[in-house]
Amino acid sequence: MSADAAGQIDQDMYSRPGIVDSDADLLAGIRVLEIGHFVAAPFCSRLLADLGADVIKIEPPIKGDPVRQWGAGKDGHSVWWSVHGRNKRCIGLNLKHPAARQIVLDLVRECDALVENFRPGHLARLGLDDETLRSVRPDLVIAHISGYGQDGPQRDRAAFGVIGEAVGGLRYLTNHPAGETDQPPVRVGVSIGDSIAGLYAAFGVVSGLLKRAAAPRARPASLDIALADSVFSMLEGALPEYGALGIVRQPSGGRIPTAAPTNAYQAADGSWMIVAANSDALFRKLCGVMGRRELPQDARFADNPARVAHVVELDAIISAWTATLEASDLETLLAAADIPATRAYTIEDCARDEQFLFRGMVRDIDDPLIGPVLHPGIVPRVMGREQAIRWAGPDVGHHTDEVLTELLGMAPADIAQLRGEGAF
């Protein structure tokens, strides 16, 4: 939802008073070259750019990154791109052109790290393997993101985030318990596999840079981030449960298999309330709010193992209670009892939430391509500092001349000649 589409929303809600402080740019002075497309590598580099790194994104001229055409659009531009490409300098470069390889190498010489997410071996076939890249920048930190990783029998298989989510075990778990529905297991609703891999890549890049600073003579870091590995690493106790006990964790719908009650319960107005009263003390509080103080004495609900074993009966009792009250009344009652609970927010709820607004997690940005638009704030926050979204996702090639002139010292005539030859 963009700011002008928000209708009744007061634009002053999104104003953040304060002075932008350069001390909030934790990665100022770090330059990152992104040769990425779709989600994972661009998400990684956006996180780095949000924290002050100078990110230079290389993308195909004219059409650019395919994400520029994804999702809802305005004035011919993807609204998502406004966030996905923010704080980056974008240059259009035809990597198939003979001059492009040298331009990339010249840019690498001026960069601290490189992030890419093509299939394994693709950059090498373009003449941009790790050895060649480090021939011009020996201490370059390189992050390779791919579906299955840079080695192994499945390294060459095609993959997107959803494939990583399936191979990593998440898609199997995002379903209702067996017998409740014959519908396919749902996905999370966003490209969570790509984003998790991007987070790991950003963490890896910063770690590689820290290692380089601490031990300049150490071998530079080449990072191998697989979508499947990244999702698989998030499965909490599922693997040790299988390895030690032979347990194959099963889908549990809105519940978790280790504690109860924790689920989504429908209110009288149709809203879904998330209630997480999954300790003995919280369960007693919940029973008091429901007017069912006898339940903790029931052997089926006396402690957490018992509640997990009888979760179907317990959820039915709670659902019968929530169905008698509006969501707003439930929130008031549960908050007064200090029980973790909330409505399941829509994006409109998020945009209006007083906590998000106070923390600057909803920002009103003037995007030259699409006009006023809302952006999520920067994570992590630097406490006591005002962090800036410097600009929204720029048009394809917006910074080409600037970057080539500033970093490579190219003359306007040379840039014009290469442009005429189809290099960018």
Number of strands: 13
CATH class of the largest domain: Alpha Beta
Please give the order of strands in the largest beta sheet: 5-2-1-6-7-8
Unreliably modeled segments: 1-9, 14-19
Specify the biggest β-sheet. Answer: 6 strands, parallel
Oligomer state of the chains in this structure? single chain
Structural class by sheet pairing and helices: alpha/beta
**What is the residue-mean pLDDT, rounded to a whole number?**
94
CATH H-tier superfamily of the largest domain? Crotonobetainyl-coa:carnitine coa-transferase, domain 1
- Counted by DSSP, the helix tally is 18
Architecture of the largest domain, CATH level 2?
A: 3-Layer(aba) Sandwich
Shape assignment: elongated
Organism: Labrys monachus
Pfam families: CoA_transf_3
Keywords: Transferase
InterPro entries: CoA-transferase_III_domain (IPR050483), CoA-Trfase_fam_III (IPR003673), CoA-Trfase_III_dom3_sf (IPR044855), CoA-Trfase_III_dom_1_sf (IPR023606)
Short account of what is shown:
The chain has 424 residues and is α/β, with parallel strands linked by helices.
Structural commentary:
The protein is of the alpha/beta class and 424 residues long. The protein has 2 domains: 4-235 and 360-421, Crotonobetainyl-coa:carnitine coa-transferase, domain 1 (Rossmann fold, 3-Layer(aba) Sandwich), CATH 3.40.50.10540; 262-347, 2-Layer Sandwich (formyl-coa transferase, domain 3), CATH 3.30.1540. It has 18 helices and 13 strands. The protein has helices at residues 40-50, 79-84, 98-109, 122-125, 130-136, 161-167, 170-173, 192-214, 227-232, 238-245, 280-290, 304-309, 311-322, 327-336, 347-352, 354-358, 400-408, 412-421, and strands spanning 31-35, 54-59, 73-74, 77-78, 88-92, 113-116, 141-146, 222-226, 262-266, 272-276, 341-343, 362-367, 371-376. Mean pLDDT is 94; it is low at 1-9 and 14-19.
